Amino acid sequence: xxxxxxxxxxxxxxxxxxxxxxxxxxxxxxxxxxxxxxxxxxxxxxxxxxxxxxxxxxxxxxxxxxxxxxxxxxxxxxxxxxxxxxxxxxxxxxxxxxxxxxxxxxxxxxxxxx
Length: 114
Prior knowledge:
There is one protein chain. By secondary structure, the protein is of the alpha+beta class. Helices cover 61% and strands 12% of the residues. The protein has a three-stranded antiparallel sheet with strand order 1-3-2. A hairpin with a 5-residue loop joins strand 2 and strand 3. It is globular.
């Protein structure tokens, strides 16, 4: 059993707060495939409103997980990509995806048959 360590608890809490916000995991999953422009992300993430997508991208940028790159072109082109810190979340996101595929559907099926 793990002992209580205040620093570990705070670090864990902060990490879960970052990736646990609504739609953040899905945004990270999509960004694992490489850079996207905002409209491309918006199209890939249909259930996510543009306002929420914009908020989450800003939050992830502040955390150093997403890099927002602006190209000085006309019209201005902006791309979002994962930083090294963001790419390090790859195994976590993949593990959540695998867990969801294995267990979430089973739970949904069990509740539907009741």
